[in-house]
Amino acid sequence: MSRKAADSDPICAIARTLDVIGERWSLLIIRDAFYGRTTFKEFRDSLGISTDVLTARLNALVEQGILERRPYRPGGGGRGSRERFDYHLTHDGRQLRPVLGALLQWGNAHRPNDYGPSSVLVDTNTGRPVHIAFVGEDGNEVDTAHVDSELGPGYYAWKAQTAAVD
Amino acid sequence: MSRKAADSDPICAIARTLDVIGERWSLLIIRDAFYGRTTFKEFRDSLGISTDVLTARLNALVEQGILERRPYRPGGGGRGSRERFDYHLTHDGRQLRPVLGALLQWGNAHRPNDYGPSSVLVDTNTGRPVHIAFVGEDGNEVDTAHVDSELGPGYYAWKAQTAAVD
DNA sequence: AGAGATGAGTTGGAAAGACAGACCCAAAAA
DNA sequence: TTTTTGGGTCTGTCTTTCCAACTCATCTCT
To answer: Closest partner residue to B148 among A47, A124, A152, by Cβ?
Structure first.
């Protein structure tokens, strides 16, 4: 993104997140990274993205701390072999899983394909399916229809700050 | 989006969702709609988006069934007053709340601003805060680190189908 | 009644981003 | 030795975005 929203919206966490992952291919690259793909070739083959754009996106995600670029030696790595890189999710990147989960769930529910869900999320401890939901302080699920936004402390702090400038 | 991903990826629900809401301003418009904004002017003033793009985005979201365009009469609606429209979330649109919630939560956690969270999500029944999480069949929260993707039935059905074509 | 102001756009031109495909270089495989 | 593979860069075209100016019908103020 990196439009002016970044400074006109320092206050909105959604806008800040979109500045990191809102570009056209970013979320699909991150999805692939969750599926275990790591190399340039794997991303290109999977996405059919043009190589210049892929280069740009990978570099941007590395810069943003979502992916980590790691050297590796293909084929076991002889002594003088050329350095190659692959891309792995960082901690911040792995925390995007709920974003992907929410997108997946909405797509399966509201834009189904003819075959049924092609990927499901499971609890690795039990092997049983999981879903994305709002959860209250007591740990109980809250129906999405009963969730609403309220202004938080940061809004009032920011408002007091900027009002002082006027 | 509306690149070829739509047909190369009929199989991926995330790609299908991004075809609906992946354009540059779409999610911020939807965020504003959740905040209660409805008119062209409210969106423009809030986002600072250029008007031609706003027109295009609103029309696209209406076409996708995320927003509904409703006529209203300004100033109470005299007899021959010009028709005006505003935009409201549809049912499908309202179901995007978890997507926004996940983006909000990631931004607050990993890209904090100097003031603290400027908006918080609450249960309208209790007024208490809620958060986004993965939940198992038993209704208990599952740690994101213990969630993984598996291929679903749709993947195998699709694969059998396309293998038959070869 | 006339002079702005307002809401919801349309139009035109410049800049940025995406796309497709050709090309490149080093190492590994045949 | 030739070919293939991985990871790109470079070009040229096409699409999207951005910015600013303009429109047009109503509403408001004087």
So the answer is: A124
Q: Which of B105, B109, B96, B76 is nearest to B32 (CA)?
A: B96
Q: Are B70 and B88 in contact (CB under 8 A)?
A: yes
Contact B115 A24 (CB under 8 A): no
pLDDT tens sequence across B52-81: 999 999 999 999 999 999 987 654 444 444
Of the candidates A121, A135, A152, the beta carbon closest to that of B141 is on: A135
Q: Are A152 and B120 in contact (CB < 8 Å)?
A: yes
Model confidence pLDDT, tens digit, residues A126-150: 999 999 999 999 989 999 999 999 9
Q: Which among B91, B82, B93 is positioned nearest to B31, based on CA atoms?
A: B93
pTM: 0.92
Are A17 and B107 in contact by the 8 Å Cβ rule? The answer is yes
In chain B, what is the straight-line distance between the N-terminal and C-terminal CA atoms, in Å? 29
B5 to chain A: closest CA residue: A47
CA distance A31 to chain B (A): 8
How far A80 CA sits from the closest chain B CA (Å)?
37
Task: Tell me the three state secondary structure of residue A32.
Answer: helix
Closest Cα to residue B68, out of B40, B90, B84? B90
Of all residues in chain B, the one with the smallest CA distance to A155 is B118
- Nearest residue to A96 via CA among B99, B50, B113: B99
Helices (H), B3-50: 5-8, 13-21, 26-34, 40-47
**Per the CB < 8 Å rule, is A113 touching B13?**
yes
Separation of alpha carbons A84 and A45, rounded Å: 17
The answer to whether B143 and A130 have CB atoms below 8 angstroms apart is no
State whether B110 and A95 contact (CB < 8 Å): yes
